[in-house]
Amino acid sequence: MNQEVLALVEKGEMLPLMEEFYTIQGEGFHKGTAAYFVRIGGCDVGCHWCDVKESWNAKLHPPTEISKIVENAKKYSDTIVVTGGEPLTWDMTALTSQLKAVGLQVHIETSGAYKLTGVWDWICLSPKKMKLPTQEVYDKADELKMIIYNRDDFRFAEEQAAKVNKNCILYLQPEWSKRDKVVPEIVDYVMANPKWKVSLQTHKYLNIP
């Protein structure tokens, strides 16, 4: 990457774009709705069960002008979901400004581990034990999505729920490879603790991206 391109990436005027696609949101509050996903490369949070590990190395994904991302996005949907990787690795200010300027709703899926940049209509926070969210993301999250891989994750989920704002919607979601084991545990937990809701990766049941 030459110095000129590197400078544009650091300013968020170009971003390492892994993929972009139009599909149905499969998880959380907006499940079942059509959305255009923009997956940004780069993540050092390192979840061992991550199902998009190919997103971790930003150098594998071409720096792309955000004007091109916006041009593609506005063709498909009025809801854009920025995901990763960890999108907050990069400055999201320019991308969200341009998406909002053409009248789009802009959502983010983030671990919250880095400074919150950009203007968002919906923030889905999914904290990870290896690198905890910043206080600003806790304060502004619209939904908290906790991935349940083992029983200790229920403890971690409660710790995280105590840190978010009072209007944040709380979800427990089974890690896909462990779903047969943890779904019954999640069901029992939500019935005993009804402040939580169950989230499923419905796109995987629908066999869509």
TrEMBL record:
[4Fe-4S] cluster binds at C43, C47, C50. Pathway: Purine metabolism; 7-cyano-7-deazaguanine biosynthesis. It is an enzyme of class 4 (lyase). Substrate binds at I24, Q25, G26, R39, T83, P209. SUPFAM superfamilies: Radical SAM enzymes. Its EC number is 4.3.99.3. It catalyses: 6-carboxy-5,6,7,8-tetrahydropterin + H(+) = 7-carboxy-7-carbaguanine + NH4(+). Binds 1 S-adenosyl-L-methionine per subunit. Keywords: 4Fe-4S, Iron, Iron-sulfur, Lyase, Magnesium, Metal-binding, Queuosine biosynthesis, S-adenosyl-L-methionine. Residues 30-209 form the Radical SAM core domain. InterPro entries: 7-CO-7-deazaguanine_synth-like, Aldolase_TIM, rSAM, rSAM_sf. Gene3D superfamilies: Aldolase class I. S-adenosyl-L-methionine binds at W49, C50, D51, G85, S126, P127, K128. It holds the Pfam family Radical_SAM. Belongs to the radical SAM superfamily. 7-carboxy-7-deazaguanine synthase family. Homodimer. This is 7-carboxy-7-deazaguanine synthase.
